[in-house]
Amino acid sequence: MSCTAYLSLGSNLGERFENIDLAIDAINRLEGTAVSGRSSFYESAPVGIRDQPDFINIALGIETVLAPLDLLTELKEIEKKLGRRETVRWGPRVIDIDIIFYGDEVISLQGLDIPHLEIEGRRFVLEPLAEIAGAAMHPLTGKSVEDMLGALPEDNSIVKVAGKN
Predict the structure, then answer these.
(1) Which residues face 5 on adjacent strands?
(2) What residue ranges do the domains of the chain occupy?
(3) How far is 115 from 129, CA to CA, in rounded Å?
(4) CATH number of 3-161
(5) Residue 62, beta-bridge partner list
């Protein structure tokens, strides 16, 4: 049975737009998985370690038959194939792919928390996600993506940028 999931992709090393496009192509080729929606590109300041290049971010909707852990395994493999190396937390990366929502499931396992634990405070996740799934509900809080985004203080740390859509 197919499930709608939402992913957040980011890149701040190398050819950032190309890295994201390559990741999207690889996700779309996963068995039983198809991209169902994609946001515009957004550029955002880094979180945590500030002394690094800005990120390009995008939200992606997918339909998948993969179970959450299988999806995570496949996404980590895509990251690895695209050149991601495990370094410091919040450090620079060629590609980062996070599962934000997987249907209305709540999952807490080693290495996988769905919904993503830090979604409510992350404009660089919420703004692109609101573009493709503003009415999607956080299964624990009952807040929509649009409501979570509206609750954040205004800032200019993220901006929509031109790019291929």
Answers:
(1) 62, 102
(2) 3-161
(3) 13
(4) 3.30.70.560
(5) 5, 35
Query: In one letter, which amino acid is 70?
Result: D
Quickly count: other Cβ atoms within 10 Å of residue 2's Cβ.
Answer: 14
| Sequence-ordered list of residues with C-beta below 8 angstroms from that of 48, at least 6 positions apart, any chain | 89, 90, 91
Rounded CA-CA distance 104/102 in Å is 6
The two structure tokens encoding residue 61: 């909707």
Distances (CA, A) of 38 to 5, 43, 49, 88, 92: 12, 15, 27, 28, 23
Residues annotated as part of the active site: 84, 93, 96, 98
- The pLDDT assigned to 165 comes to 40
CA angle 29/79/104 to nearest 5° reads 70
pLDDT given for residue 93 in this prediction: 79
| Positions of the chain with pLDDT lower than 50, given as ranges | 164-165
Q: What token pair was written down for 40? A: 């515009």
* Each residue's pLDDT tens digit, 81-108: 987 667 655 567 789 999 999 999 999 9
Task: Report the candidate in 5, 159, 6, 12 with the shortest Cα–Cα distance to residue 92.
Answer: 12
